[in-house]
Amino acid sequence: MISFTIEGEPRGKGRPRFTKGGRVYTPKETSEYEKAAALAYKSGSEGRYFDKLVPVRIAVTAYYGIPESAGLRKRERMMDGEVKPQKKPDLDNVIKIVMDALNGVAYHDDAQVVLVEGHKLYSINPRVEVKVGRMEE
Questions:
Q1: What is the DSSP letter of 108?
Q2: End-to-end CA separation in angstroms for the chain
Q3: Sorting pLDDT into bands at 50, 70 and 90, what band is 16?
Q4: Could you tell me the pTM of the whole model?
């Protein structure tokens, strides 16, 4: 399994935008986050690429920052994992932005991904931790 971390608050996949002329484009925040995810993978993977025929599994853990307004007891419960984030971005959108970022970088296409695991937790260090590997790993 290849493990890497995308530092900062988790981001979800943004919806495509349209110009007045009808041209479709990806929002800047989405494309920048996808580039950061691809770079994090490249630096942690030693260039490992999963061939088209290889079934891939991926695990994404999104660590959201603890709100300033949280009291001491609630903060402790958040850190212990007793209280889980039920806020945006949605977990499926966080997974989608990571999987799209790895297209052509870790694997040919995210259609190769046959198993996905996802978790949302709180942390004082917001980030997204990702593990990618062959289905057998």
A1: S
A2: 6
A3: confident
A4: 0.91
Query: 3-class SS at 113?
Result: strand
d(CA 14, CA 85) in angstroms, rounded, equals 20
Q: Given strand 56-65, what is the order of strands in its sheet?
A: 2-7, 127-134, 56-65, 113-123
pLDDT tens figures, 59-87? 999 999 999 999 999 999 999 999 999 99
Query: Beta strand pairing status for 24-25 and 17-18?
Result: antiparallel
For residue 47, CA distances in Å to 40, 62, 66, 106, 115 come to 11, 24, 34, 8, 22
pLDDT at 38: 96
**pLDDT tens per residue across span 99-121:** 999 999 999 999 999 999 999 99
Hey, is 54 helix, strand or coil? Answer: coil
| Spatial separation of the C-alpha atoms in residues 55 and 76, rounded to whole Å | 39
